[in-house]
Amino acid sequence: MGHTSLDKIIALQRNPANIRNLCILAHVDHDQDYLLNLIDSPGHIDFSSEVSTAVRLCDGAIIVVDAVEGVCPQTQAVLRQAWLENIRPVLVINKIDRLILELKLTSQEAYSHLQKILEQVNAVTGTLFTSKVMEERAEKEKKEEEVEEEEKESKILSGDQVYDWSAGLEEADDSQLYFSPDQGNVVFASAIDGWGFSIQQFAHIYSQKMGIKAEVLLKTLWGDFYLNAKAKKIMKGAQVKGKKQLFVQLVLDNIWSLYDAVVTRRDKEKVEKVIASLGVKVLARDSRHSDPKVLLSAICSQWLPLAQAVLSMVCEKLPSPIDMTAERVEKLMSVGPRRFDSLPEQTQELKRAFLQCSSGENDPLIIFVSKMFAVDTKTLPQNRPLTQEEIAQRRELARQRHADRMAADQTAAESPKMEGLTLKDSQPEEEDQQTFVAFARVYSGVAKKGRRVFVLGPKYDPAQGLSMMPEGSSAWDRVPAVPHLSICSMDSLYLLMGRELEELDEVPVGNVLGIRGLEECVLKSATLSTSPACPPFIPLNFEATPILRVAIEPKHPSEMPKLVRGMRLLNQADPCAEVLIQETGEHVLVTAGEVHLQRCLDDLRKRFAKIEISASKPIIPFRETVVRPPKVDMVNEDLGKQHKVAIIHQVKEASQGRPSDTLHVDHSGLVTLTTPNRLATVSVRAIPLPQEVTCLLESSTELIRTLEQVNMSLREGKSLDISPRTLEAIAGLKAQLESLLQGRKWRNAVEHIWAFGPRRYGPNILLNLVEGYQRPSLWQCLGRGDQSGEAGAQAAGMRDLDNSIVSGFQLATLSGPMCEEPLMGVCFSVERWDIQSAALPQHQDSLKEDSISHGALTDSRVEGSSETWTAGLCQARRRPQAASADCYGPVSGQLIAAMKEACRHAFQAQPQRLMAAIYTCEIMATAEVLGRVYGVLGKREGRVLHEEMKEGTDMFIIKAVLPVAESFGFADEIRKRTSGLASPQLVFSHWEVISSDPCWVPTTEEEYLHFGEKADSANQALKYMNAVRRRKGLYVEEKIVEHAEKQRTLGKNK
Amino acid sequence: MSIFTPTNQIRLTNVAVVRMKKGGKRFEIACYKNKVMNWRAGAEKDLDEVLQTSSVFVNVSKGQVAKKDDLTKCFGTDDLTEICKQILAKGELQVSDKERQSQLETMFRDIATIVAEKCVNPETKRPYTVNLIEQAMKDIHYSVKANKSTKQQALEVIRQLKESMEIQRAHMRLRLVLPAKEAKRLKEKLKTLLQVVESEDFDEELEMVCLVDPGCFREIDELIRCETKGRGTLEVLSLKDVEEGDEKF
């Protein structure tokens, strides 16, 4: 575009037929001028989102393939993206010089090599095509099946059931799809030496030289043809007869001999002969140059200029915006499962505007924004420093004005001082301003500066919009609020020229442009239109989904707001980055891969946030649970028959365990705990819940929350209006629980559920198995539970303290004893609960129980024993022997603490396990890297669930599960190991119990023999548990030095 | 007294001495460095890894072994292992640098964890991460005191952090029900303690839902209990008023 002026570009923009919107790769002297919009996109797989955004705006793509490396994973990805967007690709096979100079192939070998590459590329296109046909067929079959089923009943006897075994491939025409030199969509090139050709050029040359028709040559120059010199005929079957193919003889041999003469042998005479025969002029300076490459490129760039070859192919083979196929338009405009035909009529009319590609005043304007990119406000055209010319112009103007004023002032006989004529920009620029420019293309109509348009979000429904808005309304009018629709004006329009932006007043149809002023309404991509009937375009399909999660933190905590703002900007600027704040307060950035992450972090540091940041592994959540006691030990021996070996540490534990008289644990796991004032006693047992119950509780948290609200209002004597549907759902939940909790152990358990926890709606249950204690049922809203049969005075007193037990349970389930993570799937059954009534009256008259119970709740929430947090309680403790009850605080508070401790001990009395969060992982991989995928999965404790082949391709789809704890860097590793041929996708799926016991030590003789005394083999659960404990600053059982004798001797004086 | 020559003496290096006074006498045992604290915490289970020799001394550096009579008189037994265990558990010792360092590190983490649990960013109502709090604690050069409880220190840290960053104790959400008669008078008194009043409903009784600083809870509780003579109620709706769930930008 070097020699083309801005005016000329604007003139060219007016005629869409002269526009070529391209994806990867200027202006050639053909019969007419063309305007090419080139969008270059990076090749790394992490940035394939950039390709996605570029491809959407283009009509064609130039795909460049390395002649030596052939088809790489990225080439496949690019081809797939071009295919999905329905744009026409052309192929450039580059770096042919490497075949000659590096690999030293003969022309014959090079020919077969090139043929192979072409076959590879076509094979990729072929699989894309077949998979599409298969999909269509599957869809068709599904429909047919539906129809058939109806029909079957009617003609079941007809016996006309001939199954169609053809795959449908025969019917579909695919000849236009493939790359083939004789189709003219392939260019062979060596960009470094400046040459490139399509076979048309050679066909043209030889048709004159040899007197064979150009069309015949065009068909035979590529393929298994040879020239019969005697008969002067082109014959088929070169390979069989051992003859040189036409392409080798006429094309490659010439290039090979040129390289041989110029580079390899440096034969001066021969070079001169070649130069003479080619009719090119070489400067004496070039021919004398010591580097033969200079001479080579001097000859080649005149003989077979690369630019011309590529550009003529582009102009001839790639479509202009006018030639956009109806199929592509329909595809763009039909979002999701909706078919184009189902869109409203007005919308279908827009398709005409699309196809006509007219830029009349009255045509509806349709623009698609594919991404937003940030630009320094300073570099915008209106803020750019002025050019010399402009400065001179302004100075002239200012001088004139000054002269006028001088003339006027002279009458007042005053001589003002000469003003400095320096020009300053009027607006003081803010240093670190970023402006977002939308990268977009006009699909219909003319984009004008300042025009107001509708911004259509991805979920906008034109039918709904049309019905809500008055007929013929435009974006200037005040319109009623329609979901997913907003209005904004395009402040400036820019022509994108590499890094430069040129301001334009209007941009007609078919052009790529930049728009400023949309940052408020457009997040990443959007459809802009003047007509509300326009549907939003289908979302961009990204080849790589964000997968690598890191937690971002500012170096200085006070800079948090800057970080948040920066991350918001990054989110808008990068189509493939996701940013979220987690419940734990972490700011998590999800990127496509390591390289992408590095760029995002750089952008954050230097452009968006401008602060020091650090990225680290995100916090991994765990859950704690209990399981049934195992029947066999670690070496699969039956536990029942063996003697436990008394080992040192067990004796140790017994002696070290606090000999407290308030706590009693019996060997069936029932824990009895008395409050410090010896007035209340609770007995609790922990039981593992069946997995299905846990899942059910997990999935119905919302319902349990409403149930809790209902119960709370019922307790206060108010009645809340509950919709019959909620009641039905609650009854359903109860029935499901009943069906899942069966067996002797769970008899009547559902009726006795006291509470759920933590936070009153979690996946843990508190059971009321206290004999003689009646409390309003949890299910009382269902009207079935007998309405609180009046019990004795004792029970009434206990009911007041009911809340304390629940609170204790909530606290215990919120953070377990293993590493203070929430519990999951544990049922605590309270089997005994005694209160000495002596204490109660004393408290009942002075305090309202309900209120203190909560008072104490906060105290114990603040970590068990609560001293320092509330001054009042603190004082009560310090007073040594005041009134005996008071020195331990209120009864309800003690009961909470006791209940919490009892639950924790009951939990510890059972075999404890950690639960890890698990991702499901879907991996697409080709057959040759399948083994390596399995290797990476195995190393990271993953488990393959199943694999299947994707129909019509050679890709396998592997479904596996992988612990979240092992997922950091997983995507990157798998990509590295498989050289990018496999790409995983991770989604959180469920919690899973880690089978190994974190507290395990060898106890039986067999285990002792097998593992030794210390069992140093790695225990995954223990590793996780210790990592969490260390992070939280909890006590980790770890020795400072392992072997006392092996420490460095400090005193060496003797 | 035996002859004191280099050949019949056992030299002990890397000794950590644990002393205990019992029955008016001083006893010492010779232990390895960095092991006594582990023994006390239960991480080290092998006594031989802790003790250099199982004999009990009167003075370790001089190599004077305690007399058997004294031992039986003071400890009531002459089982040396038993006595060593007692001294290990209750005796005093110089804590080594490594032991102290690891102890302080753990306490530092613990304080940061408590702060992170209790506090939120007042702008977003989201908690800060432990890492960030640790960073902030380092920035204000907070030094851990080994003899104060971590909770006490956490409160102190929160106070200091407020000066350098946006941080606040997470509020509690309370629901107060006050009888109509005292409502107006009580409300005046409560006004200073309540941070935010979210809703107010006055028909027969005054019902308020409000956010308060957890530190004021006891005061409010006391006030309501005393003034209304048990007729007003106070209910905790949530202990920590924080945003739940993930948020996408």
How are the SSEs ordered, and which strands pair?
The complex is a heterodimer of chains A (1054) and B (249).
Chain A (H helix, E strand, L loop, with lengths): L5 H8 L5 E4 L12 E4 L9 H10 L2 E7 L6 H12 L3 E7 L1 H6 L5 H48 L31 E5 L4 E3 L1 H12 L3 H7 L4 E4 L4 E4 L1 H4 L4 H19 L3 H11 L5 H5 L3 H12 L2 H12 L8 H8 L11 H12 L9 E11 L11 H24 L22 E11 L2 E2 L3 E5 L5 H7 L16 E5 L2 E6 L2 E5 L1 E2 L4 E5 L9 E4 L18 E7 L5 H14 L4 E4 L5 E5 L2 H15 L4 E4 L5 E5 L21 H9 L6 E3 L4 E5 L5 E9 L2 H9 L1 H15 L8 H17 L12 E5 L6 E5 L24 H8 L1 H13 L11 E10 L3 H8 L2 H13 L9 H8 L12 H19 L2 E15 L3 H10 L3 E7 L5 E9 L6 H8 L5 E11 L11 H7 L8 H13 L22
Chain B lengths: L14 E8 L2 E8 L3 H6 L15 E3 L4 E2 L2 H8 L4 H11 L1 E2 L3 H22 E2 L9 H10 L10 H15 L3 E2 L2 E8 H12 L2 E9 L2 E8 L4 H12 L4 E6 L8 E2 L1
Question: What's the mean pLDDT score of chain A?
Answer: 74
Strand order within the widest beta sheet of chain B: 9-10-8-11
Cα(first) to Cα(last) distance of chain B is: 84 Å
Globular, elongated, flat, extended or rod-shaped: what is the shape of chain A? globular
Keywords:
heterodimer, A: 1054 residues, alpha+beta, six-stranded mixed β-sheet, 33 strands, B: alpha+beta, four-stranded antiparallel β-sheet, three-stranded antiparallel β-sheet, 8 helices, 39% helix, Elongation factor-like 1 (chain A), nucleotide-binding (chain A), GTPase activity (chain A), EFL1 (chain A), GTP-binding (chain A)
Task: Report a brief summary of the structure.
Chain A is an alpha+beta fold and 1054 residues long. Chain A is globular, with a radius of gyration of 39 Å. The model of chain A is unreliable at 23-31, 155-165, 413-431, 645-659, 784-794 and 838-886 (pLDDT under 50).
Outline the structure in words:
The complex is a heterodimer of chains A (1054) and B (249). Chain A is α+β, with helices and mostly antiparallel strands and 1054 residues long. In chain A, the strands form 8 sheets. In chain A, strands 13-12-18-9-10-17-14-15 form an 8-stranded antiparallel sheet. A 6-stranded mixed sheet of chain A has the order 24-25-26-29-28-27. In chain A, strands 23, 30, 31, 32 and 33 form a 5-stranded antiparallel sheet that branches. In chain A, strand 14 (492-497) and strand 15 form a beta hairpin. In chain A, helix 5 crosses helix 9 (246-264), helix 9 (246-264) runs antiparallel to helix 12 (292-303) and helix 27 packs across helix 29 (891-909). Helix content of chain B is 39%, strand content 24%. Chain B has helices at 36-41, 68-75, 80-90, 97-118, 130-139, 150-164, 180-191, 217-228, and strands at residues 15-22, 25-32, 57-59, 64-65, 92-93, 119-120, 168-169, 172-179, 194-202, 205-212, 233-238, 247-248. A 4-stranded antiparallel sheet of chain B has the order 9-10-8-11. In chain B, strands 2-1-5 form a 3-stranded antiparallel sheet. In chain B, strands 3-4 form a two-stranded antiparallel ribbon. In chain B, helix 4 packs across helix 5 and helix 4 packs across helix 6 (150-164). Chain B is elongated, with a radius of gyration of 29 Å. Strand 20 of chain A pairs antiparallel with strand 12 (247-248) of chain B.
